[in-house]
Amino acid sequence: MIAEAAAGHPSHVTDPAEPSGRPVPLDRTEIRERLSGNLCRCGAYPRIVEAVEDVIG
Predict the structure, then answer these.
(1) N or C: which end of the chain has fewer CB within 10 A?
(2) What would the pLDDT profile of 21-30 be if each residue is shown by its tens digit?
(3) Selection from 32, 10, 39, 34 nearest residue 22 by Cα
(4) What is the C-alpha to C-alpha distance for residues 31 and 11, in angstroms, rounded to an integer?
(5) What CA–CA distance (Å, rounded) separates 22 from 10?
(6) Which residues contact 46 (CB under 8 A, 6 or more apart)?
(7) What is residue 27's DSSP assignment?
(8) What is the rounded radius of gyration, in angstroms, for the C-alpha atoms of the chain?
(9) The dihedral of CA 54, 7, 10, 17: what is its sign?
């Protein structure tokens, strides 16, 4: 996910105004979209999003 965003690969929620091929900023909405379908939404899910934010921050 982090590598894809850095390479400029958009997701369904990426701002269409972002130039193609430029790094995509990973805000909470982007992180959640990119994790969808890959993780269950159990009780740990909010902490997983926070962990991703820690890694990229």
Answers:
(1) C
(2) 889 999 999 9
(3) 10
(4) 10
(5) 9
(6) none
(7) -
(8) 11
(9) positive
